[in-house]
Amino acid sequence: MVKYRKGLERIHKVISDYGIQDYYKNYHKQYKDTKHDLEYSKYNIILDTILMNIANVMATEKYDFKLPYSLGRIITRKYRPGIKYDDNGDPFIKRPINWGATKQLWIDYPELYKNQFVYFTNPHSSGYIFTLIYRKRGCLFHNRLFYTAQVNRAVKRNICKQIMLGEFDSLETKTK
């Protein structure tokens, strides 16, 4: 066991992010000097178009997207956040803080500074919070623990717009 600063254990993480440049290097190595070899700019445009089409399908037509070759699913779920209790039995709210409204509250009432927060209530979605999850159940690769998938901000904002317009819904999960 490795001790780290003030008796804390060191958390061992394997972090390895891959992006379009890494995908292109692999593609170029495989199809070098063939008729399928592309320049990086064309490859980038093609891959970006495919990924944006997948994002549009996720945002408008389906609630989840099954990745090819048994790589898992990217799903959307909604939940209603509940009230949690700390060790002393005091309730605390586990919702995102609306920092704009909170700072305005602190300006109007300086005595509430760092003691009172304003939380998002999501009235447009009846109080639900939506989340995107990479589900690895049924995948055919080893060491599933080390694999993650992140959805970029543009896709999240697109789904958010659909939720605000009331055109998007998802399956409900248990209250967190």
Short note summarizing the structure:
The chain has 176 residues and is of the alpha+beta class.
* Class inferred from helices and paired strands: alpha+beta
Number of helices, where a helix is a run of at least 4 consecutive DSSP H or I residues:
4
* Residue-averaged pLDDT: 81
> Radius of gyration from the CA trace?
22 Å
Which stretches of 5+ consecutive residues score pLDDT under 50? none
Beginning-to-end CA distance, first to last residue: 33 Å
Q: How would you characterize the overall build of this protein?
A:
The chain has helices at residues 20-31, 40-60, 99-108, 153-164, and strands at 3-4, 8-9, 64-66, 73-79, 83-85, 91-93, 129-135, 171-172. 31% of the residues lie in helices and 16% in strands. The two termini are 33 Å apart. The strands form three sheets. Strands 3, 4, 7 and 8 form a four-stranded mixed β-sheet that branches. A two-stranded antiparallel sheet has the order 1-2. Strands 5-6 form a two-stranded antiparallel sheet. By secondary structure, the chain is α+β, with helices and mostly antiparallel strands.
Provide key terms for this protein.
8 strands; 4-stranded mixed beta sheet; alpha+beta; 176 residues; 31% helix; two-stranded antiparallel ribbon
Mind sketching the topology for me?
Layout: E1 3-4, E2 8-9, H1 20-31, H2 40-60, E3 64-66, E4 73-79, E5 83-85, E6 91-93, H3 99-108, E7 129-135, H4 153-164, E8 171-172
Parallel strand pairs: 4-8
Antiparallel strand pairs: 1-2, 3-4, 4-7, 5-6
